[in-house]
Structures are given as structure tokens and as C-alpha cells.
Write a structure and sequence with these properties.
Layout (H helix, E strand, L loop, with lengths): L1 H4 L1 E8 L5 H9 L3 E5 L6 E9 L2 E7 L11 H13 L3 E7 L3 H13 L4 E6 L1 H6 L2 E3 L1 H8 L3 E3 L8 H13 L13 H14 L10 H9 L3 H10 L3 H19 L3 H20 E3 L1 H16 L5 H41 L4 H18 L2 H16 L2 H15 L7 H6 L4 H7 L6 H10 L9 H11 L2 H30 L19 H35 L4 H12 L4 H18 L1 H13 L7 H9 L6 H11 L7 H11 L2 H13 L4 H11 L3 H27 L4
Parallel strand pairs: 1-4, 1-5, 5-6, 6-8
Antiparallel strand pairs: 2-3, 3-4, 7-9
Helix pairs in contact: 4-12, 6-12, 8-9, 8-11, 10-11, 14-15, 14-16, 15-23, 15-28, 16-23, 19-31, 20-22, 21-22, 21-29, 21-30, 22-30, 23-28, 24-25, 26-27, 27-28, 28-29, 30-32, 31-32
Bound molecules: guanosine-5'-diphosphate (GDP) and magnesium ion.
């Protein structure tokens, strides 16, 4: 008699992979029996163990996340608990994944069965930085908690002690652990009333049956139909309750009930689980991400951030830009004052200093832009931006990862084209390469800054430039879609990318990243651009017209004052330029560009030079206009441009610079990366045609609207 009183049946429940079988083995050793649950092919494992005066039978239940009737495993687990009434249920919890695991726990408690929580994997939880207040958590959850490490047998004896204690105590059971809110609780009580004296259902806790009915559990409905006297009334009552609740919550009650359980769990964890730094960062990241990668807010936040970056770049960039301008103006004057009149002076002052100075002046803008991009990258936001963009990229038929090369394209097309290597799919890759020149690169920025600064007030200049970036993106989207559809059709690969936790970037990291890119720009300024400036100076200086010089020399001699001298010198320079090589090429281009409002030969010449590199458009304009004037800095250039262009034409000019031919270096890289001349030539062709068409639409549209 005494012996039989000391028999206990323990059921082990738990999520798959929580370590249930490991704990089962640690509890029972080799004394096991394997069979099947009646009627189903689910394995039923039983083991035996003596503990103190107790003879224990341990049953390993199938691993489940929940106790709904969605799968055979869940049904077997819950029917075992309901039908065989084990003395204690031990839930093996993966403590490193607590919130998800406790969802099952809340449901076991509603079955009104004594429960012990084995916080298994406590070693993993510990190394991830979780700190549990066991006492507090145990009080909140209404069940004793024992930390265990299954495969090392740690905590197994404590677990057995807790089991025996729970089995022999008269502690009331926490069946109302989760409170589902006034409306649902009212329905649970009403249904509970119907269920009260149903003999056929008396092994089920009425509260649990009521909840299951509200959840629409088919198996319970069937049980009620078969076993309840007032089955019709109960089922009709449940149906009506579901209808009422659905009107209140929109979501079906099953969803609201599940949310309430998770709400309870996260509240309990909030109070009793602390997370040390490493995990806190992940946890914080998750929280930030609920906002930053939100379905509705993600994209607007991204656009606002980008807009802020541009505003910041141009506002903070203005003062140092002024200093650099002043410096090169001074240098140019110094050289002009020291050196004798002639080719060397002209080459130095008008070719080299004006050319390189005209590029260096934009270094502050470019460094600030890259600083902002480095911040977004180092903080972990850029990966989110790719994630947010994946939805959009897929609409164009591109991969979310394509977004990264395209983003780099805002800095420079060359690394952008190289970054497409991370795309596995060749079609994704070629299309990304083809549209990347439409991302407005850093070299185009000087052109925008010069022109929008000259033609639009400081209040709108930033917005004008922003609109160009947007235009580039829109065109990239359209062309990407077109290319993906007709040029390179086929499926693209799905998005898989780890999101790193957010972290505060270090100043050192930011500076290094900013400098690496700034240096890349500088090297270009120092080498290609310098070379191009000299070539352009030569193209615009030769062939020289001696007779023209002679004519003007006598007129300058006879000039009345300084002002007239300057005027005559300017006129001479204009005429010389017009007759130079560059002038002739520019005039040829001007014919083609007339319909788009850019029929001015200097602009044609500058655009021609821009094929070398987009920023050369600025240095060429500087050289072309400064040849007739004493100083070659931007302020003077802006004034000169105002004589040849209107705001509408200036805007079309910028649009053209945005879209037309990728620079020589980009073309070379595209050739290298695609290993064929087909794609770089295609890129040159399509961008030039597109530039002309878009410019035409904007210019003629502007004329029609009376903006000319
Ligand atoms: P079940 O699916 O719940 O039966 O999980 P298993 O018992 O098969 O365990 C899954 C894996 O987790 C196995 O590789 C175990 O060795 C491992 N494991 C079990 N308990 C622990 C533990 O407490 N700590 C650690 N680190 N690993 C464990
Ligand atoms: Mg197992």
C-alpha cells in the first residue's frame, strides 16, 4: 500500500530541440521502454527511476510548440495530459529562447496539471548574457523553475526534488495565469457556465474547454458534440461568442488569445529576465528594427534619412568650400603675377590651377557625403536599407543585394560595378551594372553644386540636387524593369542576409572610411582629371591664330582704361576658343543638343570633355570661361554661366550630365567585369539616347509651361 502511494508519473513536454530527450535520458538512464501511442505512429518512450521513496515513470511526450489541435503530435501530447493525468508535467524549456518556449507552458498550465519548468540549455542562455531572477519568474509563472544542462546532468537532482515537492504539495494550480482581457474573459465565463455540470466533459477543465472553443478547436468541438448533454447549446453559444469577439477585435479570437499569451510572457520576462551587454544590443536592435524596418514606415524613414544626409552635406560643406575657392584664386593670381606672359603661365594658371582647383573645391561636400554614408554603414543601418529595399528591388526584378552596389554608385560607378560581384545571379548582375551609372555619382555632384548654386537660391539648391538623385533612381528603376523584362528575362534569387546589430560607429572607423573614399576621389583629381585638364587646355588653346592676336594687340595698346583692356582680352579669348579644336567639337555637339535647349557651344564642349570624367565638365567650364577673365574660381564662373543659360536650361544641363555616357573609367570597368565589349558599348548607347530623350521632354515641357 505504502509503495503504490509513492508511484509518480511524470510527463516531459517541450518544444522540439529544447533538449527533452537529453533530459529524459539523464532522468532515466538505460531503463527505457519504447512503444507507440494508441492509434498513431507517434513513438512513446517511457523510462523508470527511483528517487528517494518514489518510484517514477517518466514519459517523453512528442515535441510541440503549442497544444492546439493542428498536428498529431500536439494532439497526442495534450490528450496524454488530459486522459492519463500525469502527477507532474515537466516542461523542458530552452532557456536561451525563453519567450517562444513559454508559449507552450501557458497552455499546459491551463490544463490544470502540476507543472515544473526545467530551464534547460541554461549554459547557452548564460553565455548569451541572460540573467534570470528565478524566484520572481517562478512566482509570475506559478511553477517552480530548475535550471539544467541536460547533456551534463546538471540540475537533474534538483529537478527531481522539485517534481516530488510539487506532486505532494497542496498548492492551488494557476489555471487563470493568463488574463485574456475583459471581453474574452466574459465569454469564457459564459461558456464555462454552460459546461459546469456536463458529466461527459468533467476530465477537462471548463476554462480550458471554453478557451479552446473560442479558438475554434475542431477536436474539442467534436468532443463536446459527442459527450455533452447540451452540446447544441454549447456549440451555438461558442459560435455566437466568436462572432461577437470578431466584431470587437476584427482578428479572430484565436489570434487575440495567442497575442494575450505572448503579451503575458513578454511582461513576465520584462520583469524577471535581465540581459547583459551583448544580448542587450541584439535586443535593442530588434526594438529599433520594429520601427526602422517597419512595413509602412521603413521606406519613408529611409527617404527622410537620405534627404537629411544631403541637406547636411551642403549646409556644412559651404564654408570650407569658400576657403578652398579663395585659396585657389589667390594661388592663380600669385602665379600670374610671378610668371611672365606666355604658354607656361597660361598652362599653370588657366589649365592646372583652375582645373584642379575647380575639382578640389568640392572635396568638403564629397567628404561630408561619404562621412554620412560611412555612418549609415557602420551603424548597421545600411543592411536594413537593403532589407527594406528588397521588396522594391524585387518589383524591378532585382535582388535586395543589388541595392548595395547601386547605393555605392552614389559615390562612384567604378566600385559600384565592382560590388556587383556579390550577386550570384548573372542576370541580376548585368542589369545592376547597366543601371548603376544612373545612380548619381560623386563626380556629378560638382556639376550640380556649380549650376544649382548659380541658378537657384540657397533655399532651393539642395532640393534641386535631391530631385536629380531621385530622377536617377526613378530612371534606374524603369530601365532595370525594362532590361529584366526584355533583355535578360528569368527568375531572380531570394533575399538572405544577416542583419548585424546596431552599434554606435567609432569616430576612427568613420574617419577611415570617409578618408578611403575621399582619397579615391582625390587621386582621380590628381591624375586623370589633371591630365584631362591639360588636354582640354591644349584643345582649347590650339590651333593659335597669330593674326587675331596681332589685331587685338594693337587695339589693347590703344585702349583708354583698364576696363577696356580686360574687355578686349576677354573678347580675344572667346574668339580664340571658338576657333580651337575643342570649340569646333563643341559646336558640332551643339547642333545635336539644340532641341534640348543646350545649343551653346561651350556646353557642348564641356559635355564632350565630361566623357573623360563627369567632374571635368566643371573644370572645362572653368577653363573655357576663365580664359577670358583674370580669375578662374567658381564665383566668376557662376556669373559667366548666367549669361549663357536660364534656370530651365541649367536644370536640363544637370539632367543631361546625370544620364549621359558613363565616364571612360566606368566603361573600362564594365568591360572588365562583364568580360565583353557588348555591355559597355550598350551602356554608352542607351544612356546617351536616354539622356537626350529625357532632356528633350523636360526642356520642351518647361518651354510649354512658360518656364523658359
Ligand atoms: P529534443 O528535440 O527536445 O528531444 O532535443 P534533444 O534532447 O535531442 O537535444 C537537442 C540537442 O541539444 C542535442 O544536441 C543535445 O546534446 C543538446 N542539448 C540538450 N540539452 C542541452 C543543454 O542543456 N545545453 C546544451 N548546450 N546543449 C544541450
Ligand atoms: Mg527528442
Amino acid at each position: 500500500m505504502v509503495v503504490s502511494q509513492n508511484r509518480l508519473t511524470i510527463a516531459l513536454a517541450g518544444n522540439p530541440n529544447s533538449g527533452k530527450t537529453t533530459v529524459f535520458n539523464a532522468l532515466t538512464g538505460a531503463r527505457q521502454h519504447v512503444g507507440n501511442y494508441p492509434g498513431v505512429t507517434v513513438e512513446r518512450k517511457e523510462g523508470y527511476r527511483r528517487f528517494g521513496d518514489y518510484q517514477l515513470t517518466v514519459v517523453d511526450l512528442p515535441g510541440t510548440y503549442s497544444l492546439t489541435a493542428h498536428s498529431v503530435d500536439e494532439l497526442v501530447a495534450r490528450n496524454f495530459i488530459v486522459d492519463e493525468r500525469p502527477d507532474v508535467v515537466v516542461q523542458v524549456v530552452d532557456a536561451s529562447n525563453l519567450e517562444r518556449n513559454l508559449y507552450l507552458g501557458t497552455q499546459i498550465m491551463e490544463l490544470k496539471v502540476p507543472l515544473v519548468l526545467a530551464f534547460n540549455m541554461s549554459d547557452v542562455a548564460d553565455s548569451r548574457g541572460y540573467r534570470f531572477d528565478y524566484e520572481r519568474l517562478s512566482a509570475l509563472l506559478g511553477a517552480p523553475i530548475v535550471p539544467t544542462v541536460g547533456h551534463k546532468g546538471v540540475g537533474i537532482d534538483d529537478l527531481l526534488r522539485a517534481v516530488v515537492e510539487v506532486a505532494s504539495s497542496e498548492r492551488p494550480l494557476h489555471e487563470e495565469l493568463v488574463h485574456y482581457g475583459r471581453d474574452i474573459e466574459a465569454e469564457i465565463n459564459r461558456l464555462g457556465g454552460f459546461l459546469e455540470d456536463e458529466q461527459g466533459l468533467d476530465k477537462y477543465p471548463p476554462r480550458w474547454v471554453a478557451i479552446k472553443l473560442l479558438e475554434g478547436d475542431e477536436e474539442i468541438r467534436e468532443k463536446v458534440r459527442r459527450s455533452a448533454v447540451k452540446a447544441d447549446r454549447i456549440l451555438a453559444g461558442a459560435q455566437a461568442a466568436i462572432g461577437r469577439l470578431q466584431k470587437l477585435y476584427v482578428d479572430p479570437p484565436a489570434v487575440v488569445i495567442a497575442e494575450a499569451r505572448y503579451g503575458f510572457i513578454s511582461g513576465a520576462c520584462e520583469e524577471a529576465v535581465r540581459i547583459s551587454t551583448v544580448e542587450a544590443r541584439h535586443d535593442m536592435s530588434d526594438r529599433i528594427d520594429t520601427v526602422l524596418t517597419n512595413r509602412a514606415l521603413g521606406l519613408p524613414i529611409f527617404l527622410v534619412l537620405m534627404w537629411l544626409v544631403f541637406q547636411l552635406t551642403f549646409t556644412l560643406g559651404a564654408p570650407p568650400m569658400g576657403w578652398i575657392e579663395a585659396f585657389f584664386g589667390w594661388l592663380s593670381e600669385l602665379v600670374a603675377g610671378v610668371l611672365p606672359e606666355g604658354y607656361v603661365r597660361s598652362l599653370l594658371a588657366d589649365g592646372i590651377i583652375a582645373g584642379v582647383g575647380g575639382v578640389l573645391v568640392f572635396l568638403p561636400n564629397i567628404l561630408l557625403l561619404f562621412l554620412a554614408i560611412a555612418f549609415l554603414e557602420d551603424s548597421g543601418y545600411m543592411a536594413r536599407a537593403a532589407f527594406i529595399m528588397d521588396r522594391i528591388m524585387h518589383k524591378i526584378g532585382l535582388h535586395g543585394k543589388s541595392f548595395i552596389p547601386l547605393l555605392i554608385g552614389f559615390g562612384c560607378t567604378i566600385p559600384a560595378v565592382m560590388a556587383t560581384r556579390m550577386l550570384e545571379n548573372r542576370r541580376d548582375r548585368i542589369v545592376t551594372i547597366l543601371v548603376s551609372p544612373l545612380m548619381s555619382c560623386g563626380a556629378r555632384l560638382p556639376v550640380y553644386v556649380l549650376l544649382s548654386g548659380a541658378f537657384f537660391g540657397p533655399a532651393v539648391a539642395g532640393n534641386v540636387i535631391f530631385s536629380l538623385y531621385i530622377l536617377g533612381i526613378v530612371l534606374a528603376v524603369l530601365m532595370g524593369k525594362l532590361f529584366r523584362r526584355y533583355l535578360l528575362p528569368g527568375p531572380s534569387t531570394p533575399f538572405v542576409m544577416e542583419l548585424p546589430p546596431y552599434r554606435l560607429p567609432t569616430a576612427r572607423g568613420l574617419l577611415i572610411h570617409m578618408w578611403q573614399r575621399g582619397w579615391f576621389y582625390l587621386k582621380k583629381a590628381g591624375t586623370i582629371i589633371l591630365a584631362m585638364s591639360v588636354v582640354m587646355w591644349a584643345l582649347s588653346t590650339f590651333p593659335r591664330r597669330k593674326e587675331l592676336e596681332g589685331q587685338y594687340a594693337s587695339r589693347i595698346e590703344a585702349a583708354a582704361d583698364e576696363e577696356e583692356v580686360a574687355h578686349l582680352e576677354g573678347e580675344l579669348a572667346q574668339k580664340q576658343l571658338e576657333l580651337s579644336f575643342a570649340g569646333r567639337i563643341g559646336k558640332g555637339l551643339a547642333h545635336v543638343l539644340k532641341p534640348v535647349g543646350l545649343g551653346e557651344w561651350k556646353i557642348g564642349t564641356a559635355l564632350f570633355a565630361g566623357f573623360g570624367a563627369k567632374e571635368i565638365v566643371v573644370s572645362t567650364l572653368g577653363t573655357l570661361y576663365s580664359l577670358g577673365e583674370s580669375e578662374g574660381e567658381s564665383e566668376a564662373l557662376r556669373g559667366a554661366l548666367k549669361e549663357d543659360l536660364s534656370p530651365l536650361k541649367a536644370y536640363v544641363f544637370m539632367v543631361f550630365v546625370l544620364i549621359y555616357v558613363p565616364c571612360v573609367a566606368s566603361v573600362a570597368v564594365i568591360k572588365r567585369e562583364t568580360n565583353s565589349w557588348r555591355w559597355p558599348l550598350f551602356a554608352i548607347g542607351y544612356t546617351t539616347v536616354l539622356a537626350w530623350v529625357v532632356s528633350l521632354v523636360i526642356y520642351q515641357g518647361g518651354v510649354l509651361l512658360g518656364l523658359a
